[in-house]
Specification:
Hypothetical upf0131 protein ytfp; 3-stranded antiparallel β-sheet; 7 strands; about 35% strand; about 20% helix; alpha+beta
Length: about 140
Amino acid sequence: MSHSNSSNLRHIFICGSALRGQPDAVNLGHAQFVREAHTKPLYRLHAAENGWHPAIYQVEDNGIAIPGEVYAITEADFNYLAANEPPNMYPSDVILEDGGVVTAFLYPQELIEKHNWPDISHHGGWVAYKSSLATA
């Protein structure tokens, strides 16, 4: 089976525990790392489920540019990744700083507010947030 056919690949934006060097990177299967990227500053970042995973959602204002990585992924690997995402996460388009649109897993803002999960946007990304916990 050839991996040269890129028409079957979709681009996804990863900004949490599946980043390179993070514990869930294995969930990306055979996804190909494309590049590091930031979203446009249109999102907020929260630590959901007692810091188990990041939860992002789009906002009208006061958003941040979330750092992450873009991957090219097959439909099969995407479906595996989606099945292994935490509960309530859903795929949606996000806008990157260069105007590109890719798929990311967002989290319902109403659930974040219902559970009052902490807004960690000021840390500037999931890895920075986890690093701040390790040095605390």
